[in-house]
Specification:
Two copies of one chain form a homodimer.
Chain A: H1 14-24, H2 31-35, H3 39-48, H4 51-60, H5 66-72, H6 75-84, H7 87-95, H8 99-103, H9 111-120, H10 123-133, H11 140-143, E1 148-152, H12 157-166, E2 172-176, E3 182-186, E4 210-211, H13 216-222, E5 231-236, E6 239-245, H14 246-258, H15 276-302, H16 305-310, H17 312-341, H18 350-379, H19 383-413, H20 418-446
Parallel strand pairs in A: 1-2, 4-5
Antiparallel strand pairs in A: 2-3, 5-6
Chain lengths: ~450, ~450
């Protein structure tokens, strides 16, 4: 539902409003303020408040905006909200449903609600609805609009304008050949700035199409967009059949942006003030995976018990060895994961990257290793210990560079998301290699 | 420079092309293929190739596209490329300069080149150019266009269309009152779908404006955009004076997305195949900061030398204590940093988040701590050791939750970017507290 200009008040201090509502917990008092917020401010408000107050906010909001609101809420938050709605609200929700908006969030809705909404649609939209639902919520087909205008090469701008006027709302205009193959896109604003007798070819611009089954998240990271381009053409077997809005793509990028991309602690789309047990389960899994790798490191250390007992300094310095390997590896990882996401790194040039990373590892390893060696030699009054840690740092830097380059590359080849899985594998490698070299050399030299 | 539809070939296998060029290093052979790539494919190609081949690619590209190309290249990569251009190329570049495109990359250009380009502009664009340059490349003012159309409330759609036709290219149309205060924006495509005798009010939509000095990166993370909205109004003292394209914002989000957001190893915008010494310096700094915190952890461990010598198991288990604290803390951190970036967390509700995080810490700490305790008690045949590590894990979980919540919050209040600085502070806290409790209890019980 579109809000009219006069329905909205823009200058509201959101922080103050949240504080006030938390203080006296009677959102009804602010009914008018809340109702007149923009949809995005209402989203912000709901996501800033604990789950038990959210339903009260919901009731202050114009039912005609409920669907857009659900659409813009973070996935987890909207799931929690819908789950908390009383059953009779479901039928109210159903009455105000707009197919296009429901599509954006089909994965968050109970199946019964979707079926009921589909029954309410006329035949044409119901068909489009069902078609869209065959795609996942990371596929272009889910969000593609069919309300596009296809015009042929060589026709006049005047006739394009004429056709635009005779149609219902059109999102995008594309130029095609007689086979409906894509030739270019026509920025609607440009139609006004050329002579109406000119042909559309003069305003057509080259554009790369996407397929119905293309992944939105991939487009979002890999494609760049020219200024003024607001829809991408969607094709089936080369023929233009629909368009997808840049705002859908922007929304996707924003969502990924605020998720932690490369991390040992990925936290996917968690609801800030949602139920504790859901958050706990998601995080517990990662804690356990990391626990396993930490125990692996402990197990490695266990082999060198004798050396540690003789030279406690070895135990004291373990964090330095682990930290340097882990950080250097994460740096390489960050570069590789980005390069892979942007499709800059492929089989064609991965070796070049590997060589560059090894050079950096050598330089930083020797330089920082030398600083560490000096500090250690002075602290524990032992040149031997300094040389041992220098050696461990340099070797571990190489291990870090190699794993940082190849772990995400191999994971991607195996169809595992390198951003999620790389960090934990990498830390395991650098811990195990770092401790083995450091404590191993310690055993050889001091025992 | 805009490319025409017929200049471009879209179906090129980029990976193959990169492999071929790397194999025989004669890009001239592929001159025609490279020239006919879209600008974004040319960008991909340059970023996928080592620095020494890039200049050859550059020479294959139509000079009219040079500026857009520079604009779309990653910051570091384009700096390196421009630095490597022979001096005589600078004057060639200058000849094909388009003010609007130069603006996007003023920070990457030598001052002399910018001055020369400004002299070439007519008075009006030169003035706009200078004005835009007073803003940083993260401010709206740098990218704002003045070619907007302001229409008054109540006028007919026909007269809007008429005014659009009489103007040079217009990016966006806004509805204003008699004082030029913003009332709403008019989607250009909607002008075709209403009766020409209707008033613009019928198609106007509410929109929040931005200021010339607003930060693009903040808009990029915090604002959501409706479908079909392609420009945001830019205001000065409430009066609409310009517009900024959503594509600029999308570009900003994409750039941040591919940077590692929350990390102990931030790698800013590094050129994949740029000079090793530049990459090394950037990373070396972070390695040194982390080195300092690792030594701090070592120093803490040093206090418990006696206990470690008696019970080597304490040293063996240190990675487990450190890992659990670090990971749990990073999870909280991910949630907090995202909430802060989206302006969901403020002084009004930070305590609520803190309480939720403490609950999760208690539950996960006790549960996973118990698993660890059982493994440890069995492994080292010591119930005491199991209880010690249980205690350390639980206390450290609380420390992790508290720091994960408040470190980024405090950093933001101090105007330090929490995404960059939080992780290293957090790990220090969890390492120090974890080791102190674990080894401290070990000392009390075993010595």
């Amino acid at each position: 539902m579109m809000m009219k200009v006069e329905d909205v008040v823009l200058d509201v201090n959101m922080e103050e409003l949240v504080a006030k509502i938390l203080l006296n917990k009677q959102p009804e008092e602010y009914f008018d303020t809340i109702k007149k917020l923009t949809i995005f401010q209402q989203v912000q408000l709901i996501e800033s408040l604990p789950a038990e107050i959210r339903l009260n906010i919901w009731h202050c909001i114009d039912p005609l905006n409920w669907w857009s609101l659900i659409g813009y809420l973070q996935a987890e938050t909207s799931k929690n909200l819908i789950r908390s709605l009383p059953v009779e609200e479901h039928s109210k929700l159903q009455k105000v449903a707009i197919a296009a908006e429901v599509l954006l969030l089909a994965d968050k809705l109970p199946k019964s609600l979707i079926d009921a909404i589909m029954l309410d649609q006329d035949e044409k939209s119901s068909l489009e609805f069902q078609q869209a639902l065959t795609y996942s919520d990371d596929q272009v087909g889910r969000f593609a609009h069919r309300n596009i205008l296809r015009v042929r090469k060589g026709i006049s701008i005047a006739s394009v304008i004429d056709r635009l006027k005779r149609k219902d709302f059109i999102s995008a205009v594309f130029m095609v050949d007689s086979e409906r193959n894509l030739l270019g896109y026509i920025p609607i604003a440009a139609l006004f700035n050329n002579d109406e007798n000119d042909i559309v070819d003069d305003v057509a611009r080259p554009v790369q199409s996407v397929e119905h089954d293309s992944r939105v998240s991939v487009i979002a990271t890999t494609r760049q967009f020219e200024e003024g381009m607001d829809y991408l053409p969607v094709v089936e077997n080369g023929k233009v059949t629909a368009a997808i809005s840049i705002s859908v793509i922007l929304h996707e990028v924003q969502a990924s942006l605020t998720n932690n991309t490369i991390s040992e602690a990925p936290v996917q789309d968690e609801d800030l003030f949602g139920p504790v047990n859901v958050a706990m389960r998601g995080r517990g899994l990662w804690l356990c995976i990391n626990l396993a790798t930490a125990f692996l490191a402990s197990w490695v250390i266990g082999f060198f018990e004798g050396a540690i007992q003789q030279v406690v300094a070895l135990a004291i310095l373990m964090p330095v060895v682990a930290s340097m390997g882990g950080i250097a590896g994460s740096q390489t990882l960050a570069v590789t994961v980005r390069g892979l996401a942007l499709k800059r790194i492929t089989t064609a040039n991965i070796k070049l990257l590997y060589r560059k990373e090894m050079k950096i590892a050598l330089l930083n390893g020797v330089l920082i290793g030398a600083i560490i060696a000096m500090v250690v030699a002075y602290w524990f009054d032992s040149v031997q210990l300094g040389l041992i840690i220098l050696c461990a740092i340099v070797v571990n830097s190489f291990a870090a560079a190699a794993s940082g380059t190849y772990i995400p590359f191999v994971l991607e080849k195996m169809n595992v998301d390198p951003a999620v899985a790389s960090a934990v594998v990498l830390t395991t490698v650098t811990d195990v290699i770092g401790f083995t070299i450091f404590l191993g050399l310690g055993t050889i030299i001091f025992l």
